[in-house]
Automatic annotation (TrEMBL), chain A:
Entry's Gene Ontology cellular component terms: cytoplasm
Keyword Chloroplast assigned: no
Name of the featured protein: Dihydroorotase
Transmembrane segments: none
Biological process, per Gene Ontology: purine nucleobase catabolic process; pyrimidine nucleotide biosynthetic process
Keywords: Pyrimidine biosynthesis
Gene Ontology molecular functions: allantoinase activity; dihydroorotase activity; metal ion binding
CDD domains: DHOase_IIa
Automatic annotation (TrEMBL), chain B:
Entry binding sites for carbamoyl phosphate: 74-75, 124, 152, 155, 280-281
Enzyme superclass (EC): transferase
General function of this protein: Reversibly catalyzes the transfer of the carbamoyl group from carbamoyl phosphate (CP) to the N(epsilon) atom of ornithine (ORN) to produce L-citrulline.
The protein's name: Aspartate carbamoyltransferase
SUPFAM superfamilies given in the database record: Aspartate/ornithine carbamoyltransferase
Family: Belongs to the aspartate/ornithine carbamoyltransferase superfamily. ATCase family.
Any Pfam family: OTCace
Keyword Nucleotide-binding: no
Gene Ontology molecular-function annotations: amino acid binding; aspartate carbamoyltransferase activity
The protein's Enzyme Commission number: 2.1.3.2
Cellular component GO terms held in the UniProt record: cytosol
Catalytic activity as recorded in UniProt: carbamoyl phosphate + L-aspartate = N-carbamoyl-L-aspartate + phosphate + H(+)
């Protein structure tokens, strides 16, 4: 098999502190060499033309396998949430979901922690692991019974599976669709206090400590939540967390006029929490940036706000919005790719997200400055439910290589 | 065609007095637009009270559809009477809650009604924002008759008109609104309307029934009803929904009544000439005692119902002026 040499790129190794000039050599489905390397004359040459050469994005926690949208944004792998119909609580369903994207996209299903995501009986985690589940998740729900949660954590821990957690105390959130505050009150929307998140995180950290389990909070969105994650990390607990750009660039004002495209779960927070989320990305508290991709058509979104389904088609805006953080000087390019590739790979136990010899040749070229405008009517995603419609953004993926094959 | 005269109160001509296609809430109205609707309602209050034949034919030939997705007796009847007094052909649609709860059905229903060529629609729905959603889909003016917890603009207008007739204005009046503020669209519309008109609004509820950040409406929140009543000019009691009394939000109706029931004794804390209002239907003995509700010197409750018809006539008239080709309203 021939070699592919990517030349004139700025190499973005998540493990490094800065971008570096150099060549990246691909052999078969693996990275052969990185840096100042000689390559055979018959190698296929790709001129990166000064663009960023980065590992493919690994999107931790999507709700649909939506390849056009993922490829648009340079996403080469995604962890699929168990909140499917039917719920991914069975090895056969997990195996089926894992095959859905191949060969040019890999889906890593997250097995449901409990049967039907009902928070009662343990799901067959070992069988689902054998079928391809890379981690276990509570879905977009809260396991209310602390006894069940402790058993889930102990059982998953013994299997070496990370538990991906949704942190909202359902007793507080009940039927809420917004965060307590002026906007929710004026619109007359059922709302819950933001502390529903911190309460859930505090409980689950305590239970994980008890069980010796590794946990990942998929979407942390409040200052109090980040404080708890910081403290757990300082204590040395194996706790990680993620956030999506929505919580970095929107606050609860976005639901004004009953805009269901801004109906998220967890709901958008106030400005203070938004700024805390950016600070948590900048200071290293946040490990993962994810899209939470959940394309929803009019049948789910053109409804009264409280009756609409939460979620946004976030895949296409993940990279350009994350690049805002680099442009604003909050994080470096290499840290960005740690958030988008290396860290999610680590949470899922994948050998991916690296720019090093031997790593899978899942690569993207990023043109970080090219301007474009988000258009809900022209998205690659299965539906155009984005709260960022008409927003001018910069940066997009120009080339995608999955397992050494260019799309 | 003669050009229309400017409004004596605002100096504005025709459509400039009320440049809105729909009436979806008080939040989008400027104070002079609220006053314009109240001024327009005055003539109908006079007509309704004095004329033997309470009829005007300005909406003759127009079809008014009242689409009520949530049960209502009083508001529906009030809108029906208002439309008929103006000569409109009024039709009512009641939809059971279950059949319209899901999916595209709401939009489909709106499109269906629209296809029947309504000239004005009056809509009530149990979900906040639902009336706006329908208004975006239809070709005629839409009047919000209550959407979830969000707004009930004609109720706020009729309350403002009642207060103005009893008190001569709104500026500087202390208005105390007491009851389930959290779930109440009447409270939300009234907070917006009365603060816009210059009243000092107090809201009083048990903490479990008070919305977050309510002070952002420029109102003063109270949990102590006695303190909230001190020196009030207007006391507006809200209906306590039966489903809130089962222990989820308050322990019991009798405990609510102990803390928040308006008794003649309690009313003495308000100004001697304070009036008492209630949007109805009342839970006598819970939020309001009969001795207060039936006191002709204090209670404005029946006048509220009367003003409801007048306000709704005004809204139906004003919103259809553009389509009727009234001079200055095209």
């Amino acid at each position: 098999m021939g070699m592919i040499a990517i030349v004139n790129g700025r190499l973005c190794d998540p493990a490094a502190t800065n971008l570096s000039e150099g060549t990246l050599l691909v052999h078969g489905d693996r990275i052969e060499a990185v840096g100042s390397v000689d390559f055979p004359e018959d190698a296929q040459i790709i001129d990166a033309n000064g663009m960023i050469v980065a590992p493919g994005i690994i999107d931790l926690g999507v709700f649909k396998t939506d390849k056009p949208a993922f490829h648009f944004s340079g996403i080469t792998r995604a962890a699929l949430m168990p909140d499917q119909s039917p719920v991914l609580d069975d090895p056969g369903l997990v195996q089926h979901a894992a095959r859905a994207g191949k060969p040019d996209f890999w889906v890593h299903p997250l097995g449901a922690a409990t049967r039907g995501l009902e928070g009662k009986d343990l799901a067959e985690m070992a069988l689902m692991r054998t079928a391809g589940a890379r981690a276990i998740a509570t879905g977009r729900t809260w396991i209310a019974d602390s006894g069940v949660m402790l058993r889930v954590l102990r059982y998953a821990s013994a299997l070496g599976l990370t538990l991906v957690i949704h942190a909202e105390d359902a007793g507080l959130t009940a039927n809420a669709v917004a965060t307590d505050g002026e906007t929710a009150s004026r619109l007359g929307l059922p709302s819950a206090p933001a502390c529903a998140e911190a309460i859930a995180i505090a409980r689950d950290i305590a239970l994980a400590r008890e069980a010796g389990a590794t946990i990942h909070f998929r979407m942390v969105t409040t200052a109090a939540g980040f404080d708890l994650i910081r403290a757990a990390k300082a204590e040395g607990l194996p706790v990680t967390c993620g956030v999506s750009p929505s919580y970095l660039f929107l606050n609860d004002n976005a639901v004004t006029d009953f805009r269901t495209f801004a109906h998220l779960s967890p709901p958008l927070r106030d400005e203070r929490d938004r700024l805390a989320a950016i600070a948590a990305v900048a200071d290293g508290t946040v490990d993962v940036l994810c899209s939470g991709h959940d394309p929803r058509g009019p049948e789910d979104k053109r409804l009264p706000f409280a009756d609409s389904t939460p979620g946004i088609a976030g895949a296409e805006t993940l990279l350009p919005l994350a690049l805002n953080l680099v442009r604003e000087g909050k994080i470096s390019e290499t840290r960005l790719m740690a958030l988008l590739a290396a860290n999610p790979a680590a949470v899922l136990g994948l050998d991916a997200g690296r720019l090093a010899p031997g790593a899978p040749a899942d690569l993207i070229l990023i043109d970080p400055d090219v301007p474009w405008i988000v258009d809900a009517n022209k998205m690659a995603a299965a539906a155009g439910n984005t709260p960022f419609d008409k927003l001018p953004v910069q940066g997009r993926a120009r080339m995608i290589m999955k397992g050494g094959v260019i799309r | 065609m003669t050009s229309p005269a400017p409004s004596p109160a605002t100096g504005l001509v025709g459509r400039a007095n009320f440049p809105h296609r729909h009436l979806l809430g008080i939040a989008s109205l400027a104070p002079h637009e609220i006053r314009f609707l109240l001024d327009e309602a005055e003539q109908w209050a006079i007509l309704n009270r004095t004329a033997t034949r309470k009829h005007d034919d300005r909406l003759a030939g127009l079809t008014q559809m009242n689409a009520f997705f949530e049960a209502s007796t009083r508001t529906l009847l009030s809108f029906e009477v208002a439309g008929k007094r103006l000569g409109a052909d009024v039709v009512n649609m009641h939809a059971s809650q279950s059949s319209v709860k899901k999916g595209e059905t709401l939009i489909d229903t709106a499109v269906t009604l629209n296809s029947m060529r309504a000239d004005v629609m009056v809509i009530r729905h149990m979900s906040s924002g639902a009336v706006q959603l329908i208004a975006d889909k239809v070709d005629c003016p839409v009047l919000n008759a209550g959407d979830g917890r969000h707004e009930h603009p004609t109720q706020a207008l009729l309350d403002a008109l009642t207060i103005r007739r009893r008190k001569g204005g709104h500026e500087g009046l202390i208005v105390t609104i007491c009851g389930d503020i959290l779930h109440s669209r009447v409270a939300r519309s009234n907070m917006l309307c009365l603060t816009a008109l210059g009243a000092q609004v107090r809201v009083c509820a048990p903490p479990t029934l008070m919305p977050a950040a309510v002070e952002r409406y420029r109102v003063t929140p109270f949990s102590d009803f006695n303190a909230a009543l001190d020196g009030a000019d207007v006391v507006m009691m809200l209906r306590l929904q039966n489903e809130r009394m089962d222990g989820g939000f308050i322990p019991s109706a009798r405990e609510f009544s102990l803390l928040y029931g308006l008794t003649p004794e309690r009313l003495k804390r308000a100004k001697p000439d304070a009036i008492v209002m209630h949007p109805g239907p009342m839970n006598r003995g819970v939020e309001i005692l009969s001795g207060v509700a039936d006191d002709p010197d204090r209670s404005a409750i029946t006048e509220q119902v009367e003003m409801g018809v007048a306000v709704r006539m005004a809204c139906l008239d004003v919103l259809t002026r553009g389509d009727r080709g009234v001079a200055g309203w095209a």
